[in-house]
């Protein structure tokens, strides 16, 4: 607790949790990347690709992603409302409960306890725990907003509200299930309805974890880091409401050319294309914030993270809608192109923005200077090069994969077997693993830099914001 009454212990706790799950999740990711070209690493069922893959996605998407979101959210909420956290003990209990859930999720998924629903793999006891944990978070969010001393609600607060409400609805609706044993349940939906609800959830849970709260960080920390006001508050508000309105209608673009009614597919395509506008509204807002001050890309180490991060967000929001078009979807769906698409967002947009937010936030709540700006710059270049090499490799491999799947002989028979396509990708899988090592080295430097920053003796003068 600092002199202003703000509680930063919970911010530190979630930040450390994020770093821990980031490293663990990436180690698992490297392991399964190696398994793709050396199946002998499938040593036991617990370490098989099918089980570790979901541990990787949950460990990074939820373990790292949500930890980073909770850390920055508790920081931003207090600063933007000028109000201390109403229930700090509840927040601390939420932190311990959250980490317990992630650990239990890793163990149960490695043991094969899996609902088989993407991003909703946890069985019903853990689903209930997740809902309880989210309610604990929501209580603090809305309590601090009710008690706020600052009447004006900055755009970041709107994004945090949208995340808090929407994730609750998405998670509960999609995870309605009938328990049959302590470790097994079945969805209450079936057939097309199950697929439609699942991808309404699957696409939007990603959006409201990897887009909405990350934009909250971007809008808060970019002006703070650069000392420049956001270019247009009006544009940020218009982009917010347009994004929230359109996002929830796009999930069926994951189900193109399936038995799902064609009109539902078409609605998803239309709203997916519409999403380009509000997404690029935030990209343009970021770029124009720097107008006349682009030298900060060279002189301010944080600016590089934010601007490259929002650039990858912009590229994601072009790729995603275009992949929803039926013709392109017929070629790219189920190929490694999609894997590259997803990881440009997570390794580029999400991780860069969270990294920069931590670099800004941790020294200020600790009363210390950042241990090494040089290391932060090395971190930036390693994750930039690693991410680009990783994603471009998968894009090229995905194009080759799609072309081989569709190639036919003059008599109409398939030119290549599935195994032909798989073995042709081995060089790309090796390159992906190498790129992952480069990226992982950058993350280790990031964690070391934060760790060393906190270990330093506190400064004699107050470095926290007034």
TrEMBL record:
Signal peptide: none
Species per Swiss-Prot/TrEMBL record: Chlorobaculum parvum (strain DSM 263 / NCIMB 8327) (Chlorobium vibrioforme subsp. thiosulfatophilum)
Name this protein carries in UniProt: Cytochrome c oxidase subunit I
Membrane topology: Multi-pass membrane protein
Membrane-crossing residue ranges in chain numbering: 14-34, 54-75, 96-116, 128-146, 153-173, 199-222, 234-257, 263-289, 301-318, 338-362, 374-396, 433-451
Superkingdom to which the source organism belongs: Bacteria
Amino-acid biosynthesis among keywords: no
Gene Ontology cellular-component terms listed: membrane
UniProt keyword annotations, A-Z: Electron transport, Heme, Iron, Membrane, Metal-binding, Respiratory chain, Transmembrane, Transmembrane helix, Transport
């Amino acid at each position: 607790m600092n002199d202003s009454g703000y509680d930063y212990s919970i911010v530190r706790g979630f930040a450390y949790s994020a770093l821990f799950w980031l490293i663990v999740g990436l180690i698992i990711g490297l392991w399964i990347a190696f398994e793709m070209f050396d199946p002998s690493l499938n040593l036991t069922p617990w370490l098989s690709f099918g089980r570790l893959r979901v541990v990787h996605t949950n460990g990074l998407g939820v373990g790292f992603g949500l930890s980073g979101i909770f850390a920055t959210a508790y920081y931003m909420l207090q600063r933007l409302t000028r109000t201390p956290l109403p229930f700090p003990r509840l927040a601390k209990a939420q932190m311990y409960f959250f980490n317990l859930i992630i650990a239990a999720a890793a163990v149960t998924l490695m043991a094969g306890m899996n609902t088989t629903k993407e991003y909703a793999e946890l069985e019903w006891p853990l689903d209930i725990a997740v809902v309880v944990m989210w309610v604990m978070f929501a209580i603090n969010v809305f309590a601090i907003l009710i008690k706020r001393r600052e009447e004006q609600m900055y755009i970041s607060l709107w994004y945090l509200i949208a995340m808090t409400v929407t994730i609750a609805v998405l998670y509960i609706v999609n995870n309605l299930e009938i328990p049959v044993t302590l470790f097994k349940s079945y969805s209450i939906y079936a057939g097309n309805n199950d697929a439609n609800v699942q991808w309404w959830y699957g696409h939007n849970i990603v959006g409201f974890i990897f887009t909405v709260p990350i934009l909250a960080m971007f809008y808060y920390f970019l002006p703070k880091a650069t000392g420049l006001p956001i270019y247009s508050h009006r544009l940020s508000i218009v982009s917010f409401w347009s994004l929230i309105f359109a996002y929830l209608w796009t999930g069926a673009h994951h189900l193109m050319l399936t038995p799902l009614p064609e009109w539902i597919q078409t609605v998803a395509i239309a709203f997916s294309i519409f999403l380009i506008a509000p997404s690029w509204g935030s990209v343009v807002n970021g770029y124009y914030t720097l107008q006349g001050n682009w030298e900060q890309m060279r002189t301010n180490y944080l600016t590089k993270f934010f601007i490259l991060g929002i650039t990858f967000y912009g590229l994601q929001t072009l790729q995603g809608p275009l992949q929803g078009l039926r013709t392109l979807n017929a070629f790219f769906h189920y190929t490694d192109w999609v894997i590259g698409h997803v990881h440009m967002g997570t390794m580029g947009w999400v991780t860069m923005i969270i990294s920069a937010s931590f670099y800004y936030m941790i020294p200020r709540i600790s009363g210390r200077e950042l241990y090494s700006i040089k290391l932060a710059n090395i971190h930036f270049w390693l994750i930039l090069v690693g991410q680009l090499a990783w994603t471009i490799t998968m894009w090229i491999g995905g194009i080759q994969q799609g072309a081989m799947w569709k190639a036919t002989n003059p008599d109409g028979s398939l030119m290549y077997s599935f195994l032909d396509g798989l073995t042709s990708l081995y060089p790309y899988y090796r390159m992906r693993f190498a790129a992952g090592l480069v990226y992982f080295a950058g993350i280790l430097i990031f964690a070391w830099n934060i760790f060393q920053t906190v270990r330093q003796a506190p400064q004699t003068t107050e470095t926290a914001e007034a």
